[in-house]
Amino acid sequence: VKTFNFQFTSSKHEMGKSLNNSVAQKIYVEVNNTVPCVRLLNATHQIGCQSSISGDTGVIHVLESEADLEWPLTKGPNPPYMILLESHLFTRSIMMKIKKESSRIAGVTVVVPNTSPSEFSPHTTCPNENTGVYSDTYGPHLAHCNTTVWNPLGNGLSYEEFDFPVFSLKEDKQCYYDHNRVVNGSAPQYPLCAMQLFSHMFAVTDTATCMRRNDVINFSINPEMVCDPLGDFNVWGSIRPYNRSQLGHRDNESVVMAAARLDSRAFFWDVSTGAEGSISGFVTLLAAAHALRDVTQVAPPTHNILFAFFQGEAFDYIGSSRMVYDMQNGKFVIDLDNVHSLLEIGQVGLRNGSDLFLHSDPRYRCSLIHRHHPGVSQPLPPSSLQRFLRAQNIPGIVLADHRAAFNNKYYESYYDNADNLNLRYPPNMTAEEQLEFLTDTAMALTEVATVVARALYKQAGGDGTQVDNIKADSKTVTQMLFGFLVQANNSWFQALIPPELKDMLSDPPDFYVGVASSSPAKAKPLTRLVQFLLANLTGTATNLTQDQCQKPDDLPDESVQMYSYLWVQGTVPHNGTEKGPFCVRASVRLSQALSPAFDLGEYASRNYSTWTESRWKFIKARIFLVASRDLEMLTLGVGVAVLFSSLLVTYFISTKADVLFSSAREPASAAY
């Protein structure tokens, strides 16, 4: 009986759930391919967007020009409105007008175009201005972009707070044209097309507040965090391995560092690309590391060369500040005193001709590459090098394609994509043909990678007679550009990773740093991919079996303290269809890229990044037809009338039940 009752209850629950879903499907149409703007917080404030806890609903109004704002903001008779606008109208001027009159606005949706606008950067004009080397006490005349505005096109939208949801979508506007379009200034007739957006954020105020709430929630019966620190893992490797168990200063050790940033960001969550902003730099550095593999084995330089790829640099230098902190506190394989010099590869994909520019701190000059120097009065551009200089005077330069302001017209935006780097392929090519096609962009970055590799080798004290033999591989560069900007799930990337990680090859890859994880196995797909790329490009293919690759310490000549051992799928042989897997031995590691502020509990820190991302329950968008207010009130009135009528009828029947339902009394039985 118990089993029967349980099954009956469960079946009834499923029936009710199915009925509810069926009704909802008849009312609502789910909008796919949507991406929200989410809430981020730091030491002082919150930015981003959110909906109310039950979602925000409004009648859709398509904005065709800035003049059309008058209808939803003042004239329209059916507020609140859900404004749908084309990307060229997604400007600071329009968004701030909407924000000012937000009482009549339920939310904003931005249609993603097939082509890029002439320019768009939602970042600030002076990126990371409060956490670099320049401050009121160190080079005050150079701080806050006083002498050079690096991103003059920045409109700052990514750092504004909106108390309504903002989504991007790829759907068309047919529902609006069928039901809501204003004709000759007259209001449209009901039913009207409406949209509902759900993006309620749990965290509020600032990072200190949300982290304090996290601490309180940890003691509750059902803990549910409200925010998480941004962060991930840095990728680093060296031409000569370091014993990972020996941390801190190394006597008689001098290291030339080469660095690039991995991450990017955009206004909308999880859709950043960073073609010029980050990919051009780290692809160049990967190609340079590859070019140095053979020559450093034949003629090792005097100094070691360490390649570092930093995560979270878009958010106040999370990755580089963490590596500097670890070096200062004996938690890395070297310390700052071991760093001989540092070369950082910045934005190098939009050169004018062959021009490259060297940027360095005007008070501490260093010459690594014979290229144009922008001038002694100009500060460093936003760069990881600033975090090293903030801790210690280290000779260093930033290599870039711009003398002053960025050449990148789409800095930290969705439009910093393959088109921005002029990555072009002939028509009718298959994906595999595009993978092998040598583009002009790839050839240009190959030249830069060759210059970088040669400069690093000479700076590290390498044999001068070997310099001309150092050349970056253009095929490798073109394959990396295709993988990071067009299609990550390709045969070359597949060959460089383990079979079990093939699902991480999403298209396109995501360059937003996201929230931090404590396990390297849960590092972002981009980080893991760069880790395997660096290992394959700088490491050695071994004859170890898969079991030996997983337990190399069982072998006399192998050591996990010195090397990483990675089992990869390998390429497809010419005479067969099965891949040839093998074990790669490389001195490539992951190190934590979490701001020291969270280890120190300094959530209001002004020295380190304090960025966190709010948690949310779910993200959803849907459209439906809404009836007029008069019809809704009429329906409500009829419903109330029916309710009271039924109550009266029920009361009457209950009071007269003995009369209405009594039966005639049977006569007494007769006795015979």
UniProtKB/TrEMBL annotation:
Domain of life of the native organism: Eukaryota
Gene3D superfamilies the UniProt entry points to: Zn peptidases
InterPro entries: Ncstrn_small, Nicastrin
Chain coiled-coil ranges: none
Domain named Nicastrin small lobe: residues: 36-203
Cited Pfam families: Ncstrn_small, Nicastrin
Transmembrane segments: 633-653
Localisation per UniProt entry: Membrane
Keywords: Glycoprotein, Membrane, Notch signaling pathway, Signal, Transmembrane, Transmembrane helix
Keyword Membrane annotated: yes
Membrane topology, as annotated: Single-pass type I membrane protein
Biological process, per Gene Ontology: Notch receptor processing; Notch signaling pathway; protein processing
Family to which this protein belongs: Belongs to the nicastrin family.
Protein name: Nicastrin
Organism annotation: Esox lucius (Northern pike)
The encoding gene: NCSTN
